[in-house]
């Protein structure tokens, strides 16, 4: 009986350690750098504009040879990646339950200049939660709808 229990426990432990939660963030260890749109090649901006006409609240990042952009489009927050030739690198991702107000984006960028949000959430009380990774640690920052900082915590 003890031997059966030990084997079952070992398999359970092996199974649990081999399973990982899906993560929408990049697994790359390269630094992500926030950049102004003027630093993005014109061919990339043109490709983005053609694909996402009417997008607003753009925030560009560079990681390795890829240009990532987070933006509001059709009342939702999205992200997409392009190579330096303007080819979309991967399918874009809708990352929240609504379009993040410009004041909230600006407040986040002021506090977290080099961090890239992988998910925004609008809470039932009207606050916005930004989820991002910093040095391999998951963080959550909360702002009011007007961009006032409320809290920040990490895992």
List the helices and strands and how they pair.
Layout: H1 2-18, E1 33-35, H2 42-51, E2 56-63, E3 66-73, E4 76-83, E5 88-94, H3 102-111, E6 117-122, E7 128-134, E8 137-143, E9 149-154
What does this structure look like?
The protein has 155 residues and is an alpha+beta fold. It folds into two domains: 31-99; 101-155, Nuclear Transport Factor 2, Chain: A (Roll), CATH 3.10.450. It is 24% helix and 39% strand. The protein has three helices and nine strands, in the order αβαββββαββββ. It has helices at 2-18, 42-51, 102-111, and strands at residues 33-35, 56-63, 66-73, 76-83, 88-94, 117-122, 128-134, 137-143, 149-154. Strands 1-2-3-4-5 form a five-stranded antiparallel β-sheet, with helices on one face. A four-stranded antiparallel β-sheet has the order 6-7-8-9, covered by helices on one side. The longest helix is centred in the N-terminal third of the chain and has 17 residues, at 2-18. It is globular and about 40 Å long. The N and C termini lie far apart (39 Å). The model is unreliable at 1-29 (pLDDT under 50).
Structural class: alpha+beta
Order of helices and strands: HEHEEEEHEEEE
Unreliable residue runs:
1-29
Question: What is Rg?
Answer: 19 Å
| Count of DSSP-assigned helices | 3
Q: Categorize the overall geometry.
A: globular
Total discrete domains: 2
Proportion of helical residues: 10-25%
Taking all residues together, what is the mean pLDDT? Answer: 78
Number of strands: 9
Head-to-tail CA distance between termini: 39 Å
Beta-strand percent range: 35-45%
The biggest sheet, with number of strands, parallel, antiparallel or mixed sense and barrel status, is:
5 strands, antiparallel
